[in-house]
């Protein structure tokens, strides 16, 4: 299985999750439709099993209507199917609600051929405890130390900082979350990091003991697992 980051962050979020069979799904579509479908890792509409869109904000939903018009299977915030398993091809899917300043959802994806479970969650301040997931695409937007340092040293107003991060997940919250899980994940890919307060080295150092491997997502990153 592999994850391809087409874009991550406040300017747009889009990821392709592909199994070894070639079948794949789109996780959020917050960039132009052509930038997704023309990407060399987009394996053709015949292999696209579904598109997941977490919430209405444009950096996650920009091309949702285009995918609808293309006749794709859509799983989105508009009609979330909670508390049941959805089966699409080799994928078994569960949706869960997270706290944000818009209706927002995360997704647990189990691939029945590869026997791997993957969770994608972003843009949240609270989420349910989820066990038995080895592979995560998980928002770590900022760390409190860096944000406080920016406020102190560069005279950035606290209101400006708060407006940018108050509805997103911090490194410190991430540490608490994964410390309380029964099993350490094999891989966490940190996504939607902030240019203002999401320092790569802080995230890597802060999470390295909580999983077997931590990677900070960036444009065009391909991770195989």
Explain what the structure shows.
The chain is an alpha/beta fold. The chain has one domain: Metallo-beta-lactamase, Chain A (4-Layer Sandwich). Helices cover 23% and strands 30% of the residues. The protein has seven helices and 13 strands. It has helices at residues 33-37, 58-61, 64-69, 144-154, 158-165, 171-179, 200-207; strands at residues 2-7, 14-18, 24-29, 48-53, 74-76, 86-88, 91-98, 104-111, 116-121, 135-139, 187-191, 214-216, 222-224. The strands form two sheets. It has a seven-stranded mixed beta sheet with strand order 6-7-8-9-10-11-12, covered by helices on one side. A six-stranded mixed beta sheet has the order 5-4-3-2-1-13. It is globular, with a radius of gyration of 17 Å.
Number of domains: 1
Strand content: 25-35%
Unreliable residue runs: none
* Average pLDDT reading: 93
At CATH level 3, the topology is Metallo-beta-lactamase, Chain A
The SSE order reads EEEHEHHEEEEEEHHHEHEE
Largest sheet: 7 strands, mixed
How far apart the termini lie comes to 6 Å
Oligomer: single chain
Structural class: alpha/beta
Which radius of gyration do the C-alpha atoms yield? 17 Å
CATH level 4 superfamily? Ribonuclease Z/Hydroxyacylglutathione hydrolase-like
